[in-house]
Amino acid sequence: MRGLADVPASAAASLGVPGYSDSLILGDAQHVVIVLIDGLGWNALQAHADLAPCLTSARHEAIEISTVFPSTTPAGLGTLGTGLLPGMHGMVGASFWLPEADEILTPLHWNDGITPVAVQPEPTIFERAEHHGIEVTTVAPGAYADSGLTRAVLRGGSYQAADTITARVEHAHRLVNSSARTLTYVYWPDLDRTGHATGVGSERWRADLGHVDRLVSQIADSLASNAVAIVTADHGMVNCEERIIIDDDPILREDVVRIAGEPRMRHVYVADGAAADVMDAWRQRLEGKVDIRSRGELIESGLLGEVEFDIAERIGDFVAISRGVVSLSSSFDRRVSSLIGQHGAMTDDEMRIPAIVMRGNG
How many CB atoms lie within 10 A of CB 273? Predict the structure, then answer.
């Protein structure tokens, strides 16, 4: 199955940037628009197709692809921006230990004093495209313009602050009617926020999916014959029905030095020499509900792609990956742990995302 890394690579190849392959068959184009809808899983879209007539229209080329593991925004945006898997770009979770800083980094709320380019030094596809004469523009909320995550994995080109559907569409329309070759990245975070707060399929979530469809429809209508748009996501989401509270269980707490990640995919860091015993305790306590993999087992599995040596140190001594609809709550991220909608693990609802190619007619 093709994956999220194929989206930026195909966009770059379509615009003539050397070194990339157009595996999604976008074809040669003067303008490419990547629209990323945070939290839009393939399964959820198919289940609510009646609310998204543009996204599910037969006139577009829609396929199911896989996001990266962990199925979370920092890892997904890292891959969208660099074309690399998390083992290379280093965003190995919603939060993770950063040995060189001696603290846990939470990329969505970047820690003061940590330099983004030092955490993720690989060139982005946006930078490479700009180097080859392509006008690169990110169209997203103004609050993210100078965020650490933006500077780490999405740097390159210009940033156009746009907080409404209308503003995003206006920027996209201007860019796809430019005389230059353009690569435009449009980001929409609201569906994910609503899914976290009220759950996938809730009334508010359904209304927000309608807003997403309106955004995409208006961008599709702006495309001329030399332009193509591809709509994708960073991950899907599940509604969690069972919450295991790590802090309340002395067996799960014993010899654990720190917890990171998120409720569906925890990085667990333990006292020196205690990893094997703690893993065994977690496996026995959480059997059938959570998969436990040591750092070495996770790296060997290939789920993170090839893993650089210094990035391997960011991974927990072991990781705890939820099955089904279980979440692992922690006081480390108390508010996040309380949310209904979650992601980060390996279920189809979290891992399967859309890649919808829309072509201009005029």
Answer: 8
